[in-house]
Protein 1
Amino acid sequence: MNRADPKPHYWREIAILLVAKLLALTCLYFLFFGPSHRPLADSAAVSARILDSQHR
Amino acid sequence: MDIVELSRLQFAITALYHFLFVPLTLGLSILLGIMETVYVMTGRAIWRDMTKFWGALFGINFAMGVATGITMEFQFGTNWAYYSHYVGDVFGAPLAIEGLMAFFLEATFVGLFFFGWNKMSKVAHLIVTWALGIATNLSALWILIANGWMQFPVGSRFNADTMRMEVSNFMEVLFNPVAQAKFVHTVSAGYVVGSVFVLAISAYYLLRQRHVELARRSMTVAASFGLASALSVVVLGDESGYTAGLNQKMKIAAIEAMWNTEPAPASFTVFGIPDLKTHTTNYEAKVPWVLGLIATRTADTPVPGINNLVDLAKERIKNGLVAYDALDKLKADRGNAGLRKTLDAHVADLGYALLLKRFRPDVQNATEAQIDAAANSTIPNVPALFWSFRFMVGLGFYFIALFALAFYLSAKRRLDTHRLFLRVCLWTLPLPWIAAELGWVVAEYGRQPWVIEGVLPTALGVSSTAPGNVLFSLLGFLIFYSSLLVADIFLMTKYIRLGPDGTLGHAVAAPFARVPAE
């Protein structure tokens, strides 16, 4: 058995998996974590939610 | 459903799903340590094969547990941004340490456990296995310190300038009695899950006369460890109930469906049908004294009933409105010492005033009827708590009986001669998970309407995001988690059916075969 055989095989699989993972993470980022999905919650926002007489 | 209901549903589904895997990881990690210790002490190869076989099943479960746990931590940011700001200074530290424990300590030892068998000495590998068990349990400790603080928020104070809770005494957060009681109760429940798992799968092999030597030994370990754990769950659950009584009297009253304060010592309701409309419990069967002794550890301290606690909540809402008014005025007059003094005097009830936000935005103008409604909203779902608790406790006592019988049969070397008992063991397999999930329902559903008991109502913690976003991710979780569940069940059944020989790739060692000394 040629000892060098398994190496390229693993490299290909690892590369495919890494690319797939990168694509999945990119999709997740834009779907759920991108700037447009980030709710602002700082002291002012909390103050407005709790103390603002218009806010439930 | 609105954003609050959707966010709660999403967290409940992901938490309940994650909690299918956590207890088995907790239990199996310790059982692996016990099995490998016997291997190292006796040198008998069958115990090494047992550790490897149950370790393979542990590995499948561990992977699923990690995958399902990550999403919950993200939800604090995506769905609970206001909660994260309001309590992040306190809640964030134990949560971050838990993440470090899970992803660095646990994951490192998992890797060493699986890939270190032929690369380390027997003793070194044993140390790794125990370190894996300890890391798994430490991970649970930190998440329960975070959760314990949600139930009993000690060691912290409200800062009016930053509009959030901040740590005032980290040692109080760390040694919170609720967190410590919850930790030992939860890990003991995990040990019961692990023990029933090993007991049931071993019974399956014995019923089919497969892998008899391995199954018999596995059952012996599970019976003794499971008996000790099942007894601990009940004793430590009692401690957990007592600590809940320190700060969550409404939860205790709801679990008991006790509408009015009884003269001390209160009786325990074994059975009853709670009626939400009339605030009564029909067909009650009571055992005198028991609740008083469990909840207060005294014979002369009354346990307050739901209606009495609602009256108390009304007072706290009115008191909280004084704090709310001072806080509101401080917004325009930061340096006013008088307002700060007023706020400090009434800040313990500020959270109660926030309950009114659900009923009107300008809470300072709340009517008596709205204060009544807010006070009534402190009552959790009584029938759900009443029945969840009773099924959980009933199952707890059943496990004690099952493990005691298994222990007796094991001591008499008659484990594989009682087929009915083996069948009972096999069919018990799903029950510890049901008990664990019911325990989660009692602890977390019973905390409602609070996300932080007495401090922050759940409705005020959610993000100001669109409900569609939460609905979309909720559907995504349902699809993804269902796929994971199918994969988990497929892999588990595949390797259980394959058995130790097929999983290990070689025949399990003979009972008295020894591994040559290193």
Protein 2
Amino acid sequence: MRALTWHGKHDVRVESVDDPEILNPRDTIIRVTSTAICGSDLHLYDGFIPTMMKGDVLGHEFMGEVVETGPRSTLKKGERVVVPFTIACGACYHCGKHQYSACDNGLPADNQDIAQELYGQPMSGLFGYSHMTGGYSGGQAEYVRVPFSDVGPIVIPEGVEDDKVLFLSDILPTGWMAAENAAIEKGDTVAVWGCGPVGLFAVQSAFLMGAERVIAIDHFPHRLALAKKFGAETINFEESKTYEALMEMTGGIGPDACIDAVGLEAHGFFVDNVIDQIKGSTFLGTDRAHSIRQAIIACRKGGRVSMPAVYGGFIDKFPLGAFMEKGLTLRTGQTHVQHYMPALLNAILEDKIDTTFLISHRLPLEQAAEGYRMFHDDQNEVTKVVLKPGLELAAE
Amino acid sequence: MADSRTAARDDAPLTTSKHADAVDEATDALIEPKGDSLVGRTVTINRPRAELFAFWRDFANLAGFMENVERVEKLDGRRSHWVVKAPKGTVEWNSVVTEERDGEFIAWASEEGAEVRNSGRIDFRDAQDGRGTIVSATILYDPPAGAIGKLVAKIFQREPAIQARRDLRRFKQLMETGEIATGARNRRLQEEGKN
């Protein structure tokens, strides 16, 4: 089959690799019809994520048609499914509590050692996202082996186009959980750092959960315009001072809830950011974390901070004093995708949530490497690249 | 020193001790100690105690999740023959159940003449509030000197604690999900050990 493979920093290629097979009873094989490049794929592209190996197939946002099933899969050939990016067993204690991203069994036993050392306990497996998360081949390919197919993938009704439901795999539930973690109360003002896909879905979700005002923060004018379309007020941090603006816009109180949807690769030349970058390049290994620091400083006393943004290691200068003295609550975590999928599918079918606005580019799988380059180089115009293995190459 | 530590001993398992002589104390807890390296690991499995005990007591099942164990043959109710993978071929020994209590624990030891003297016990206790079963494995083994010693180090991957931890994770996966997770894309990659 053809697949997008990783070879190093800023080096991804579409190559022929051998096909996936059913290995375990609960597996299924799907033929991919749509797959997206995620902002967190850029962390891999930029070489920030350890335990990658040459030839790894990337991609964790995908959907397709069931073509083969193991004896204990509950799916049927021909069904169309969206696959959660978190690989969870559905049988352990954490899955029982719907904490799917904390699944005990999604990671192969040998791959659990690193996470156990780094985080204390290993987390669920993830598709196409390094060997620390299981080494599973990802969805930017013609075919994928999907484990635990009896509890993960959600079946899509006939007649619903891919583009409307593809984002159930990651970014829509992630944006929704970000808003849920902000414990929004009626009348709240919610500030959202980062108007990428997760931030934009968090904006929509916050309004659905009763927020009176949402303030979206970014520096890409096109992305801020999208946030505005959903009713958010905007701060462009290249034009305005974020903390000062937030304080003035909230009557000197600060936002009731703050959502950091930026994370590991915060842009902009802030002093702490530059220090983090130097340490990153000298293997002193800290995450670049300006947005979470600013969210904590801006948040009102007794407020809530939600952090869907991906962090992998350690940060310096975490404002622990402000966090404690103001009595803030911080909630975070990889998304429990399986928990949110059914209700969000209904919300899409009932037209309560719009997802297709996000897609700026549709490319054949063969042009995936070009898709990465575009997404990496022009984050203003390129909001989301969807790859279609079945799409004909554009005539040159 | 030993006295003062005994007097003030905390509730943590001996396998987590910072003191080198903890192995002597742990030995007392094993029915028939064989060997002087100590490994202990605990895992919680979301299945009933009786089911886990029965699966483990049928020793032939162990090869299904213990990476280096090729097969275990039942000799009689208490004795079994172990065939363990080694770089060139296998090493083998007989093991005997020295004591057991149904649904609670199994203790075993290698018989006389084993190349790798070893003993251990596996304990099953109910986790709190219906959260399954806490399974603890304690293994004592005797790494011999010389060429055999190097072989043994390889069998136990130099870090027996890591091997024990991985084997217990696989046991948990098999009992909770009915299968052992693999990140491989297909059979060829799985056989090459590429996860």
